[in-house]
Amino acid sequence: MIRFLLSFILAGSLGAQDALTGQWSLDLPNDEKGWLSVESDKVELMCGVGSARPVEKFERQNGVLSFDKSIKRPLAPKEEPTVKYRITMSAEGETLRGTMQPETGAAIIFSGKKQPPMPSAPDLSKVVFGEPITLINGRDLTGWRASNPAKKNGWSVRDGILCNDTPKTDFSAYGEHTNLRSDAEFEDFQLHIEYRLPPETGGNSGIYLRGMYEVQVTHRDSKMQGINGPGAVFGRITPTHNAGKPAGEWDVLDITLVNRHITVVLNGDKVINNQPVPGCTGGALKSDVIQPGPIYLQGDHTSVQYRNLLLRPVRQP
Length: 317
Known about the structure:
disordered N terminus; 2 domains; mainly beta; nine-stranded antiparallel beta sheet; 0% helix; eight-stranded antiparallel beta sheet; Jelly Rolls
């Protein structure tokens, strides 16, 4: 699999708009997802895992964006070298075409879809939510499945608690254990969920809303704070403060997603207040913002436990 996460900040003006200007969801090799934003003076690309990183050398001429990037194969031994690619992108209408050309070998093709502009922030006092849906039955994994059946499955239900067991104790991007996704897919909603991480490892996981936006799962003092700590929208929105509990205690999250705006209440403290999330976060299953998606739980980092998963969908007028 090829995973990469980049951010381009142009030193000068890009000049007149062309077909690339706008926001794009990307479909990458091996079912990975990404996000491209092109403005008059800035280009940002997010793909795979991690967070945005600047690329200093690139070209944009005649409607084509191009740059070089070295990418290491996931789970490769440390001694294995990276592969250098020449990446080019162009657009026509609502469709983006991209190519990753290695120094030797065949080119890899990927594509993208034009995305609608960010809607205005919703008035949450006027949004009506439906009856709560219980996402875990307390007995087994009915209604859920591994996101990658080829990986090891550490997920089970014990004493009414959804558990992920893995020996992995570090925050590296790749792991041998699978993530878990709901069979059901949702549009906008409120989600109540409680999590507990093992004190002996620090612990790190994540909750993806619609399979697209990861809300960071870690405890108050963990060395695995990710990008912005507990309750963050990974690499996109920083919480106002760290409201996490100590290791080994249950943290409580109440998350609202409406019109691509997210509110996060962690342990009763509002740490994100109706903020726009520009696009998908690293590791997303989906990147097209108009599509519904599953609740998607990260299991390829450390062990984690979840309980009391309740979802209230937005009731359409």
